[in-house]
Amino acid sequence: MKLNRLLLIILVCQILLLSGCWSSHEVNTLGITVCIGIDKTENGYLVSMQILNPATIASDKSARESPIVIYSVEVSNMAEVTGKIMLQLSRKINNAHLRLVVFGEDVAKEGIENILDYLARNHEFRTDYYFAVAKNSTAKEILGILTPIETVPGVDMYNSIKISEEEWASLKSMRIIELINSIMADGKNPVLTGIEIEKNNKIDSNTTAVLERTDGYSLLKLSDSGAFNKDKLIGWLDENESKGYNYITGNVKRTLEDAQIDEAKITSTIMKAKSDTKVHLSENEPSIEVKIKIEQNIASIEGKFEISSKEQKRLLDEMFAVEIKSLCEKALNKAQKELKTDIFGFGETIHRKYPKMWKKMKDNWDDIFPNLPVNITVEVDTKQLGGIGKPLFMKEEE
């Protein structure tokens, strides 16, 4: 009996000491941030927040009411954002569900180091959101565009980056830890996805007005890739150059490629791509060798080309290897001759293999990289030719 009383007393004391959800907040008291846009101003930043409109998201209200609200505030540094936004918003800002940070092009060119420091230091932010750069528009304009399928534009852009990276090779997602590591690394610079507004659609920053239009939505599209030198944007890679960059760096998961053989256009599905980068020394001068191995399946053939023979398959593999190597060389030439920034991590490869040599050259790497000899070889292996060996409507010659 005494033992039972003692256990009861201990249990009651533990319950009294428990704090419960002391730091929790009801959903209807929060302003949930999905996307943040950061533009440059004369005295600092214009920070825009795409915040969920709970009245629309959680009810059956008319679809003509915007699912998000954009709040913007000008600050001298990022630490002022939450406090100044609260002057406009009657809810506590919650950043735990952030999906995307969009840099305006001017901010990206000036440098994003201070912004990343704020985002990494603030415990409210998780680390699984993506980054992008607004091209030919401001970050605020990007945030104000409503998307036709996903209710919340920030979620739509996040999913688009994720799916495109897996299916189309010209894009690569970048989370904050990876971005910071790329900036801090010796001999490697980051590349971020570009987002722009379709030119044939009008821009309307008033989201309610967009909903009332009868000519459809303005559209956002993932465009070129922004190449950085440390934390500063210095130029853009187009779609083909972005693909080449991802082949060299081993970021291709799945994509489509075309090759022209005689009068036939052949499309393949890249199922596997592996890249191996090595450094070699010749007379104490480094050079880079990149070997890329591709496995693909034939997706379609337009024209007359029969692929049932070994000789035709060999020709097919060689032609696709030429096409993919051309993409890689376009990316390499852009990085070396125009942008002069090592986005491939060749300097990091030298650093790992020859640390003493790297110590001597790292301060001048931006001058050395443009003249660094790089040899790219591509090997393609076609695994599946499809259910038929020749085009369906190709007749036998009599």
Q: Using the CA coordinates, give the radius of gyration.
A: 26 Å
Q: What coarse outline follows from CA principal-axis ratios? A: globular
Let me know the average pLDDT.
Answer: 85
- Secondary-structure-based class equals alpha/beta
Contiguous uncertain segments of 5+ residues: 19-27, 210-216
The count of domains is: 2
- The beta-strand count equals 13
Protein model, in words:
- With 398 residues, this protein is α/β, with parallel strands linked by helices.
- The protein has two domains: 211 residues, no CATH class; 146 residues, GMP Synthetase, Chain A, domain 3.
- The chain is 34% helix and 30% strand.
- The protein contains 14 helices and 13 strands.
- The strands form two sheets. Strands 1, 2, 3, 4, 5, 6, 7, 8 and 9 form a nine-stranded mixed beta sheet that branches. Strands 10-11-12-13 form a four-stranded mixed beta sheet, sandwiched between helices.
- Strand 1 and strand 2 form a beta hairpin.
- Helix 10 crosses helix 11 and helix 12 packs across helix 13.
- It starts with a helix and ends in a 14-residue tail after the last strand.
- About 4% of the residues have low confidence.
